[in-house]
Hints:
heterodimer, A: 755 residues, alpha+beta, B: 715 residues, Nucleotidyltransferase, domain 5, Rossmann fold, eight-stranded mixed β-sheet, six-stranded mixed β-sheet, 34 strands, 31% helix, 26% strand, globular
Amino acid sequence: MHAKTKSPATKMTLLEQLDYSERLVTETGHYHGLKKLAVHDADPLKFEAFHSRILSTIISVRDTMKYIASSPAIRDFEEFVIGLYTPEGDAIALSTGIMVHVHTLSEFIKFMIRNGYEDDPKIRSGDIFENNEAWAGGVHTPDVMTCIPVFHGDILIAWIGAVSHELEAGTYEGPGMSVFAPDRFGEGLHISAEKVGENDHFRKDYLLRLKMNLRNSNWWSLDDKAKLSGCLMVREALGKIIDLYSLEYYQQGVRELIEEGRRNFIKRVKMTMVPGVYRGVTMPVHKRSHVEFVHPLAKGDFIDFVHNEMTVTAAGHVELDFEGSTGWSFHPFNCAVGPMNGGFWITLTQLLNYDGRVNDGAYLAVKQYLPEGSIVNANYAGAATSLAWWTLIPIFANVWRMIGMSWYARGFIEEILMSTPTCMAGVAGFDQYGQHTGYQNFEMAGESCGARGVADGLDCGSPIWNSEGIQGDAEVWEMTGPNVYLGRAFSANHQAFGRYRGGQGWQSLWMVRGSRLVNVTLTGSGCQNGGVFHKGLFGGYPSPGWKCLWAQGTNLKALIDRGKKVPQSVNEAEEMLKDGRLKAKRWYCGPLNQWSPNMADYDLFGVIYQGGSGYGDPLARDPALIEKDLTNGLLTKDIAKKIYGFDGDKTADRRATMCQRRLRESVPAHTWWRKERGRAKKGDVSKVVSETFARSAQLSTKLKDLYLEFWRLKEFPYKDTGSADFQVEAPTGFYYPKSARKPAEPVKKPTRKRQ
Amino acid sequence: MATPKRRTPVGKNWIALDAGGTMTDAVVVDAQGQFLVGKFLTNKQNESISFLGAIKDAAATVGGTLRDTLSASEVVVYAGTIMLNTLLSRTGAKVGLMVTQGFEDYLLMEKGEGGWISYPYADRLHTVTHHHAEPTIPRNRVVGVQERLDMFGTLVIPLRVKDVQQKTRELLEAGAESIAVMFLFSHMNPLHEQAAAKIIRKIDKNIPIVLSSAMAPTHKEYTRLASVVAQAYAGERARKHFLQVEARAREEGFNREVSTLLAHGGTVPISTPRLYESYVSGPVGGVLGGHYVGEVIGSGNVVCCDIGGTSFDVGIIRDGLIPIIREPTLLSFRTNIPMIDTKSIGAGMGSELGVHPLTGKLTVGPMSAGSDVGRCLRWPKTTITDCHILLGYLNPKYFLGGDVQLDLDAAIKALEPMAKNFNVETFEFAERAHRLVCDYMREFLVNMLRGRGYEISDYVMMMYGGGGPLGLTDVVEGLEFKDVVTFPFAAVFSAFGVLCAPRRYRYHQSIIAASPAADEAPQRHVKGLAIESINNAWAQLEKRAEDDFKLHGWDFRDAKLSRSAYVRFTNQLSDFEVLWLGERLSSLADLTSLMQRFEAVYTTIYPSQALYSEVGYQILEVALTADIVTPKPKIPELALQGRKPNSAAEKGTRKVYWRGKRQEFRVYEMDPLTAGNVINGPAIIEHPATTMLIPPGHHCELDKRRLIHYRSGQK
């Protein structure tokens, strides 16, 4: 029953195979030109068994390999993934985990092929390649990919790759993700698509390099060992699968799996979404002018404006167009093609492509148009992407929201899931073992989710970037670094109100313990306004935002010795600092990115995580849900009254009054438009907003055109970008992943009858 | 109170009961090794009813009475769902929970992972489906008190006495009937928890107090919390149910104490102080049975496979060791109950078949029809059992011994449109669906073995459960096991396994100890401290064991102790149990040898590339098991009766669809088959509770113990 394919692939170089495969997609619209799924159709049940065998192998290997790892990120936070790829680098099947990397590994493999690695440094059996380089498809320095080729005789038949998120990457500040680096030279150790091992062993020089360039190389090294072992285990299992099914069946079968993935994705889009253009914007605000120690290039306040159009085509394709966005800058929040692919994949796997076939097939039915030089496609060779997530999270929050609207229109309300922003605490310095350390406390992986179309967001759920949310045990984190938790609990009223509210924000407060020198970085996605741009839907509130605290030179020891109350939350610590019960030489509490001064035992730091966005009008909220929140201490009575109109028996009356007040305070849209038009014409906005508009116009007329059209104006009032006006050339001399090219003119696509 | 030493099993029955969600199975083994088997629908409201019902059913098979059977019984072990049902039915105690200040929301948070921990692949990705369970202790009965110890157990913030006093009163006012206490790092130093207990005791002389440091002093507060909550919430309620079962048994003539099975596979009297350990997820009885049968036939490596209606469960015994996991899932929490490691997938012989509305793929499970069987009886959806009826694997007129009549036409009607959907003929579809389910099981089993680095040919496979003998042939296809064994009593093998369990307690204790790679004076000093710390922890655990033995009136001098340490490479987050055969570590050389044993365990699982000896080792937990050697049920050796089954076993022939064509299979009845009989395929062996399929080119042979060996070839 084995299909006899006449693919000439085996005689071609990898580069020729890649070109051939891509040409077939372009010419036919089908993966590898597969208009018919011959192997599948000949015996669908055998084909299912084949897929099940591949997938169960990968899932079980992931489960086994994680016990080798050392990072809490892998062992307890599910922050890794392993997958199988075609010789051309297309994903066939993946374990669960950070699904960001379905396609980033794919780009890494294509990077090696397109840059002639077959000739130099050569791709041989037993080789190990590694990458965390955004130019080679990676997202940011802490996401480290390990990849091995698989040979059958002397033919390369597959790649196996695994990715883990490292808590430490040798950054300037210490933790794995840099907040303040102006460019790539501060974001830590780059492994730029390199051969790091031979004969199934890591090279000694590579391991030494890790030792010398990282604060705690044991984490990275053991995680590397975990990934390599996993790859070797899959390689062995793959041999047995090929023995059973034959090489021809395998080669043809995996291509059909990918083509099926493409078709299934299209089916789901067609079944659940409404074709058309959806428009959204997101505006992460970056304030760093207040930070004491920051590179002059990075010391500024600005808004990254991201304009985002999502087109759902009648053929079931989804396209994202970012034209109109502002340019890259000297900060680590830039995105490139790799990070943008990662962001798209977390969206696809959690919302649209979670069952059936999770592979690169879906990628063939989606497109992203990423303008060169923009924040979503930084083309400066030195651009940093260490915290690309601070841009990706708001961008894809917006995409989730647009998909939610589409589902609403088709009646798939149960599928609607709002997003949640992220913030985090990083620790660097010397730990309780006397060792140099640096790490991000990854408990934000248990952030609360956004609201759903039919229920509240999950309290203590998962962030947008990993569906397997988990905050980990405090006792594990206390063994990781020099601090003790003084509390980890929900923060009352810290919820995005709505008919269904966003998941409740929670907070952690730590006290430094066992260290004479610690600095912490405290940072939120989109900085202090992150919440505002995680909009709610249909009247639901945006995410309530974040807050952080540090206090240096405290009197905490004296309080403890005297048996006084010790703060147990960020809010309580702030209150005590304000009323003088708690004293500190210096302290900060608020929503701005922070890099603390040198701290030591008995100093404090903490974070209130944002919580997810809300859905629907708060006045439509079921009183029983409000009572439950009151009982659980998630809401106070005054806020319940003020926002939800909840007032026991008098709730209905109170709500009616609130509705009337709303109407009284409203004006017709046209009235509002006329009033605001005057401001729009003059450009009467804050300096930072004005500069943002000007920066957008620098790259494209998209936003400008929309602005002039909406306000019916002739002249765009924003000229001054507030930043040096200079261009840089995109890197040359090597291949790197490029954005899809937008069709020059919008072509009206004919509706195809059947896929 | 019976001490095991005085136990005289001669002339006495041993009874084990395994209560599942649907049925309670009873196995009565008499002194001659004769097995009586009974079943009764589990009564979740009052398990004493199903307990007695199942024994009565077993007694009736030889015309005996409940009273005769019970009064002649020496041992009754009741393994079951009391703990689970108490948790699920939310009928536990009104517990007040006292935690470290600032951690009061933990039961609502469920660590985040509670939202998806037991989900399959697609739902894990599909975030919108995640949800938290309602906590067993409402938020208004959770209080925090100011205190902190650090990771070494060193005092950071002293316990505020007035907090404990005030919060205790608040809990009592809120109606708390017992108080559970869980402070951070209490496993490294129980000082604060014990001090809190004293203060609570002063306020209320009688209220039960449960301390996490006394339950299971191991690392990770969420797991300790889950355990302390389980014990406080359900432990004493469960004890009431157990005592009710025991009282009813005594009324019916039983004059000993009833025992129960703990998750790690030991049995203890129901007076055990930590009854929450009787929370058992998965069929651990089968692994105990597999372990024992392995001993009897001389194989230390056994793969135990249980095919039920809903799931397929696997446990692997290596070198005679029953595998233990330390963080099993208890509802939506990981807990720190040491538990026999079984893994399962949601595919069984009663699984539903469906066509995925989007992808058009054939789906199997996770729903199953349970006692409603399939379309052939009264389940609205098509199941694998419908396929079995069509294929002739099952006799529609002999289901449950003929108690239930199945409808072949309904099965055909259900299968025809599905077959059409996949472009195959109905018989072929049914066979392929059956094989697909068996493929899933085989994949799962092989991945478990290979994932641990084990060679299939080193293992004996034991297959049991009601669906075991039917799935056997397709599950083992192509796998070169050393031997494949099933049982005439396959359907109740798990209950039999419970009888094989030793009287055993198991204890774990967290420590901090390191064995650096270098061997200069400073490192030797660290190693010296490690030896001290490991030895002290073992001594501490022995003291706990002695206390528990005293409680049951057992002589601790009879205890068989087994010590182990959990070792990892420095910085690694997972560790591996390494047995230590001596009493204590007496030298640096002993420590080195322990580390070498660790590496040996490690490299059976992982490639040598995963070794990291140069960074040294850490030992963060030790364990102890304390057994009393008790006799096990006899599996008597019988005289071989020759290969040919006697005529009483022969039931004629029937058409069975096998590998593309309908063929004539000989049919036998299981019970009349005797030691030495050989059944050559194609054949079917029927039993009221199970059916065994022997395809052409295969045979099975009943050995001198009536264990059934399945082999390829004809004999």
